Amino acid sequence: MNWDDVRVFLAVARSGQILGASRRLGLNHATVARRLDQLEAGLGARLLERRPNGCTLTDQGVAFLDRAERMEAEMDAARAAVSDERLDLAGTVRVGAPDGFGTDFLAPRLAPWLARHPRLKVQLVPVPRAFSLSRREADIAITVDRPEQGRVIARKLIDYSLGLFASSAYVEAFGAPESLDDLARHRLVGYVEDLVYSASLHYAEDLGGVWPSRFEISTALGQTVAVEAGAGIGILHTFMAARRPHLIRILPDQTIRRTYWLLHHESTRGLAGVEAVSKAITDLVGAERAIFR
Predict the structure, then answer these.
(1) Quick one: which of 238, 219, 227, 154 has its CA closest to 187?
(2) 3-state secondary structure of 120
(3) CATH class of 3-82
């Protein structure tokens, strides 16, 4: 069995497309298809159903995927063991994170740490979505839910809070509500409900379940910027509001609490780059723990 053929299989399984895998690997479409043929012929089994709209794993493919990922983990570990990676971090580590945490907190703080490791590349993907570690959409993921299954190593990163905020200009123009019932007469900034990817992000349910917003934005950062500009009252992350002096806390007794989890796939255990970036994120959060409360 040729390891390069297995590597091609993993790329196709994770992307769901031969074309997507060829782009990721830097190979042409025909080469990817040929290597899949070689692998299936050598195993005597059909691993993928190839259709015009993509590829799906067969039962044999699902069984082989688990073993292929274990082979990949062993290859990565072997490479790290015989290289100087632990002394001089190298390679690429992709971090998937919610947009607010990734853009507003992590991006400006991770850059100075990365400057000390010139051979290491970090790809920060801060978007409002969940990431599949098994498909290698990210090496590290920051999530608001702890996974209950799969070969994922999870540890608690930080508890964080959200509250009601408005800009000083908005309060000056429209006043501040004195109760949750008063919110009905105010302009509210909210989230786009059908684009929320986790039940734990339905923050309005913690405030009685009603949030009749007329301006809805699909990202936490977008909501924060809109509220800061005077668009209305919003449910914002306190760590994002903390560095915006023109934001005023409304109804401070109304606090919503959630947790960030730091995840990585079991197959990346022991990889120096992943471990180093995970520790850097943990240390950065720990150094400013107070702003998350």
Answers:
(1) 227
(2) strand
(3) mainly alpha
| pTM (whole model) above 0.85 | no
Q: Where in the chain is the domain with CATH 3.40.190.10?
A: 91-155+260-292, 159-258
Q: 91-155+260-292 — its CATH code? A: 3.40.190.10
Cα pseudo-dihedral 104, 108, 114, 120, rounded to 10? 50
Task: Show the beta-strand stretches assigned E in the chain.
Answer: 48-51, 54-57, 91-97, 120-126, 140-143, 152-167, 188-190, 215-216, 233-237, 247-265
- pLDDT (tens, 9 = 90+) of the chain, 293 residues, equals 888 898 898 888 877 888 888 887 888 889 999 999 999 999 999 999 998 888 889 999 888 888 887 787 777 667 666 655 444 577 888 899 999 999 999 999 999 999 888 888 999 988 766 776 666 678 899 999 888 777 788 999 999 999 999 999 999 999 999 999 999 899 999 998 888 877 788 888 888 877 889 899 999 999 999 999 999 999 999 999 998 999 999 999 999 999 999 998 877 777 788 889 999 999 999 999 999 98
* Assigned CATH for 159-258: 3.40.190.10
What SS3 state is found at 1?
coil
Instruction: Spell 46-65 as b/e; 16+ CB within 10 A means b.
Output: ebbeeeeeebebeeebeebb
Where helices occur in 168-233 by DSSP H, the ranges are: 168-174, 220-228
Which tokens hold the place of 232?
């209305």
Closest CA to 269 of 78, 136, 66, 73: 73
Give the separation between CA 43 and CA 91, rounded to whole angstroms. Answer: 31
- C-alpha 180/C-alpha 209 separation (Å) is 11
